[in-house]
Amino acid sequence: VACQFVIQACQRHLDDLMAEKSKSFRYRFDKDLAERAAKFIQLLPHTKGEWAFKRMPITLEPWQLFVICCAFGWVNKGTRLRRFREVYTEIPRKNGKSAISAGVALYCFA
């Protein structure tokens, strides 16, 4: 179950994957860049709770991977600059907003 905007975002991603094959589409999805960002964040340890005590790394859920990979995987074909500069997500309490945001910030600084 997902809201209209999530469904539209997923559909846009699928449509863009098909459109990237045409020369007129300016962007391409770079799987390596998407994986690099996701793997970096998953190397970071938890900082609170019992998982922090056990030094467990962050494990991204599928929806988090989708957001991270879309944000960092789409690049301009010519310049290789990222397509998306801003990402807006609404996440309920206790769903890892701070950990994911910190991971993204660290990745952008690295």
From TrEMBL:
Listed transmembrane segments: none
Pfam families: TerL_ATPase
Domain spans labelled Terminase large subunit-like ATPase: 62-107
Classification via InterPro entries: TerL_ATPase (IPR046461), Terminase_largesu-like (IPR005021)
Signal peptide: none
PANTHER family tied to this protein: PROTEIN YMFN, PTHR41287
Name recorded for this polypeptide: Terminase large subunit
Organism: Escherichia coli
Source taxonomy: Bacteria, Pseudomonadati, Pseudomonadota, Gammaproteobacteria, Enterobacterales
